[in-house]
Design brief:
With 276 residues, the protein is of the alpha/beta class. The protein folds into two domains: 168 residues, Rossmann fold; 93 residues, Pantoate--beta-alanine Ligase, Chain: A,domain 2 (2-Layer Sandwich), CATH 3.30.1300. Helix content is 37%, strand content 20%. The chain contains nine helices and nine strands. It has a six-stranded parallel beta sheet with strand order 1-4-3-2-5-6, sandwiched between helices. Strand 5, helix 7 and strand 6 form a beta-alpha-beta unit. The chain is globular, with a radius of gyration of 19 Å. The termini are far apart. It binds pantoate. The site of pantoate has 10 residues, from strand 2 and helix 6.
Length: 276
């Protein structure tokens, strides 16, 4: 695996590649990332992974400083996969001067995650576009775990005519259903045992909807109450349309149930799709 930290040598190295699949990450790789990378490898012989903890997508009070950085272990994991290239720049490379050009995002960036993490998607979209411009891949793989991020990157690529295919990778879960995430390691033993209840609660809503319940507001409220009684602080539980991420109405099909909630100081997100 070739490791680059500067843009010129990365570009030089990639210039002879005819088809590139890209997987952007913030490092601290786990089985969820590895599944995205394997997916990319099936679609292209040349896979580029990036590791960069992007300051632009953290609010001042969020966990930028304590976000787990495990570069050596990440490299070991990547070496075990057939990854051609790792791009791991430091901040001076991606932000040699203050990043003052930032994307203006559509209203979908202000709901769900955007309501509770204002500016988050602007930071994500800006760094993703920078990485796309640097690497110029043919396709990029994003996990469904960050469902709204995937949606926004797709919309950005469409509306800005970026010639890159955005490919979705499935969420990888622990045996009890908890979606894998770097933030899971903030959980102590007791919280880890409780954490799967976010997924179980979304699953419960899915089953109710499949059984014909269309009272989405009540389903959301009951789920919120249920988690609250178990000690969670819920940011949102919402039943939305997959295509627009706007609130679903009775009769809509192709739904997605999204949730974000805190266990003590750890914020977890998850989602489940309901197809026709
Ligand atoms: O999903 C992530 O890890 C990040 O949001 C991304 C896409 C690497 C941008 O920093």
């Amino acid at each position: 695996m070739n490791i680059f930290s500067d843009i010129a040598s990365l570009r030089q190295h990639l210039s002879s590649e005819r088809h590139i699949a890209f997987v952007p990450t913030m490092g601290n790789l786990h089985a969820g990332h590895l599944a995205l990378i394997k997916h990319a490898r099936q679609l292209s012989e040349c896979v580029v992974v990036s590791i960069f903890v992007n300051r632009l997508q953290f609010l001042p009070h969020e966990d930028f400083d304590r976000y787990p950085r495990t570069f050596e272990n990440d490299c070991k994991l990547l070496a075990g996969l057939d990854v051609n290239t790792l791009f791991a720049p430091d901040e001076k490379i991606l932000f040699p001067t203050k990043q003052e050009f930032l994307l203006a995002l559509p209203p979908v960036a202000d709901i769900l995650e955007g309501e509770f993490r204002p500016g988050f998607f602007r930071g994500v979209a800006t760094i993703v576009l920078k990485l796309f411009n640097i690497i110029q891949p043919n396709l990029a793989v994003f996990g469904k775990k960050d469902y709204q991020q995937l949606h926004i990157v797709r919309e950005m690529v469409n509306q800005l005519n970026v010639p890159i295919d955005v490919v979705a990778g499935e969420t990888v879960r622990a045996l009890d259903g908890l979606a894998l995430s770097s933030r899971n390691q903030y959980l102590n033993k007791e919280q880890r045992a409780e954490a799967c209840n976010l997924y179980q609660t979304l699953l419960h809503i899915k089953q109710a909807i499949i059984s014909g319940n269309q009272d989405f507001l009540t389903l959301q409220d009951n789920a919120t109450l249920h988690l609250a009684t178990r000690g969670w602080k819920v940011d949102y539980i919402r039943i939305q349309r997959q295509d627009s991420l706007m609130p679903a109405h009775p009769g809509d099909t192709r739904l997605v149930i999204l949730g974000a909630a805190w266990l003590n100081h750890t914020r977890l997100i998850d989602n489940i799709e309901i197809d026709d």
